[in-house]
Amino acid sequence: MKNIKDYALIALLIIFQSGNLFAQKKYTDYSAKDKQNIFIENFNNNFNKWTIDNNWISGKIENGHYLLNCKNYKNTTGLSYHSVDIDENKDFEIETKIKIINGNGALVFGMDDNFNHYRLEISDKNKFFILKNVVAKNTISKIYHTSILNIINQNNFNKITLRSINSVFYVFINEKFIKEFNKLPFFGDKIGFSVATNSKIEIEQIQISYIKKPENKLVAQSKPELKPQSQVKKHIFPFLSISDINFIDKNNNDCIDADENCSIFFIISNNGKGVATNVKANINTKFFITGLNFEKTILIGNIKPDSSVNVNIPVSGMQDLNSDTANFSINFDEQYGFPPDAFEIQIITKKYNSPLVRVVDYSFETDNGFIKLGVPVQLKALIQNVGFGKAENVSVDFEYPNQNVFPNNQSHYELHTLNPGDSKALVFEFLANKLYSETSIPINIRINEKYGKYSENKFAVVMVYNASNNQKVVISSNENERKREIKIASLSADIDKNIPVNQSINQHRYALIIGNEDYSTYQKGLSSEVNVDFAENDAKIFKEYVVNTMGVPEKQTKLLTNATSGQMSQGIAWLANLAKIENGNAEIIFYYSGHGLPDETTKEPYLIPVDVSGLSVAQGIKLNGLLKTLTKHPAKRITLFLDACFSGGARNKGLIAMKGVKIRPKNVALQGNLVLFSSSSGEQSSGVYREKKHGFFTYYLLKKIQETKGNITYKELANYVILNVSKETSLISKPQTPGLENSLQVKDEWANWKIY
């Protein structure tokens, strides 16, 4: 009896020891002495010929780091790799350190010459993915994904470890266990890195090692000789299990959308000794959902022992899909009665959000609303998707009268895809000869999209000039032609397009942008003449430069148009609170375009919300109060851009009559690390550049940032704006001189501050 107990204890110890060997969920189960290095890259040089520049990526190796930037060529991921011959039958480890500057980056392994590969990918959204990329099928399968919010080191290097122990893969992030799964068969011998579109990453090291198994220190004891009681025939059975259940959808919103093809993915493994025969999956839903399609049966076939099969169940939403919850139940059959356990998966379905593509604005380039026969004319049309769904296969045709009207450029445009809110400006140029006898020319702007029912056509009609005086018509035509050749064929100014995009994001930058244009709507008795022309456009385009060129994160940018007193106060408080949270590291940007007024008694300058009367200036935002709020908490840098005057002048008509005398506003006191760009000086007004649909100050400010892509110092920018605004406004006899002021704290450094 004692011997039997001893053997049982030994068996338990063996099982326990074996569990330690084969379920390696501790990073520390193996130390450096257990590893035999077969490849190490420290990036002290480029002896191994990593990619430095090609169509897909640009790279740089220096000081032990490898910097990779995706060029977005054909909207595809960039790859850099090196061949390392790894014996997959041995236990091995691949380990690297990656910093995600922005976007997504990954450790790539098992890649072949056709670029089929696996990758362990980290995103700047604190997500981790295990992906399989099969180029020939143009598929990227999501084997596994999870949040690593409490594991990842933001703005620092993260260690990614892939271990293969006894044909099982173990993944660690920063030495924390993430996932265990059956070993994936390599496509090839290439190891390296991927950088996704709009992404930049930095790699510190990559090391590949064979792992020596720790010796089993349990002393083997002699076994008692056991005699079989009878000869029993041994049966061999399969043992099937399901793992890595996942849902894969095209737009990664974890829902089945109408008009979207998706799949339910899982791995079925045979951990038994016998072959699993004629395995199939049966798929059902608890309730019927209109517009939901899926395969009812998937034939998986035979599964050999110690092997796995990846299974994808196609699921799709039709256009009539209802918003609901699909409860899928998946059970299995095996010919001899050894199926795996059934499982359920619950997925949200979303109904179709239809697009609506229409002409939201159009204009003819005319002389007082008329066109002249024999002179080319341009029809500018702004096409926008104002619906909540994506519009696909969008095309636009400009249809014109068949007789005596001729196109000067293309009349058909392929816009392909318009996401909700997306717009596109088109130009159709045409000419009516002098045989045209009608009094107007109708142009039908016909829009088509994928389904043929989510678009609206528009008739644009222009009147024909009655050319009773032929001599005048000829002279006017030549002059108009000259002007047409130098005028930009666009509904927007040159600075509104081709806005430079800089890849690096400054997580410590915050911006509040205000454009107050429409005062007459908020205050009874005011005419539209008091409105500040193009102030909304000033603010909206400035925001685009802030996000794309100045490196301010979108979520750290607040845009207010036609802001009331309460909204402006809340926005300023929002900005000040962020400066407090940053504890001295914040870089604050404040922009304002709109009315400014002085207090007639104190001469204190105020920013005027749209709901504050010019007779109640003190209810506005005092400029000195704004500056005190923004500098209440220490900040690394505070920059104000004010496209407003404080003398009582205005772009159009002032909010109140200032008795014919403009007031020189009181100077403001600057504290903290602060620089103030202002659009005008003293008693001047701040004018509008009507041709460009912006204030003069804002136009030349953004023009220089556009030309330099933000690579310009504050001093250089101020010099350019002051020179060009002064010159342009003096030409029209409305001189306006921008100014720049800085606090004493930054008097020796502000000039070298850069926009980006």
Describe the structure.
The chain has 7 helices and 43 strands. Strands 1, 2, 3, 5, 10, 11, 12 and 14 form an 8-stranded antiparallel sheet that branches. The protein is mostly beta strands and 756 residues long. Helix 6 crosses helix 7. 14% of the residues lie in helices and 38% in strands.
Principal-axes geometry comes out as: globular
% residues in beta strands: 35-45%
Main sheet overview = 8 strands, antiparallel
Helices, by number, come to 7
Low-confidence stretches: 7-23, 216-224, 467-489, 657-662
What Rg is obtained from the alpha carbons, in whole angstroms? Answer: 35 Å
What's the pLDDT, averaged over the residues?
Answer: 86
How much helicity do the residues have?
Answer: 10-25%
Q: Helix/strand/pairing class, anyone?
A: mainly beta
Tally of extended strands? 43
* N-to-C span: 82 Å
What are the SSEs and their pairings?
Elements: H1 2-22, E1 35-41, E2 57-62, E3 65-70, E4 78-83, E5 92-102, E6 104-111, E7 117-123, E8 127-134, E9 139-147, E10 158-165, E11 168-173, E12 176-182, E13 190-195, E14 200-211, E15 240-249, E16 255-257, E17 260-270, E18 276-285, E19 292-294, E20 297-303, E21 307-317, E22 324-333, E23 343-350, E24 357-364, E25 370-371, E26 377-385, E27 391-399, E28 405-407, E29 412-418, E30 423-432, E31 440-448, E32 458-464, H2 470-486, E33 509-515, H3 535-548, E34 557-561, H4 565-582, E35 587-593, E36 596-598, E37 605-607, E38 621-622, H5 623-630, E39 637-643, E40 674-678, E41 688-689, E42 694-695, H6 696-708, H7 714-731, E43 739-742
Parallel strand pairs: 16-23, 25-32, 33-34, 33-35, 35-39, 39-40
Antiparallel strand pairs: 1-14, 2-3, 3-14, 4-13, 5-10, 5-14, 6-7, 6-13, 7-8, 8-9, 10-11, 11-12, 15-17, 17-21, 18-20, 18-22, 19-21, 22-23, 24-26, 26-30, 27-29, 27-31, 28-30, 31-32, 36-37, 37-38, 40-43, 41-42
Helix pairs in contact: 6-7
